[in-house]
Amino acid sequence: MTIRFTAPIAGAMSAGVSDTEDGDGMELTFQCCTYEPDDQDIALGFDTHCVSLQTRAPPMEPSRNEHPVT
Fold first, then answer.
1. pTM summary value
2. Separation of alpha carbons 26 and 15, rounded Å
3. Distance (Å, whole) CA 22 – CA 58
4. Does 24 or 65 have the greater pLDDT score?
């Protein structure tokens, strides 16, 4: 399992974990704001967080009938 943390950029924080170092397999990412939401953020629904789960397939191997592009 690979753990990745990203520094805050433009008021947001992102943290994630992945099955493998190369990014294949499953990845779970959490994102949230690093500041206290104001009234406008709350009215627009920006006072929340985001959790995403993605599955990334490894690259396909060429079949025996395919020739590599040269």
1. 0.56
2. 14
3. 9
4. 24
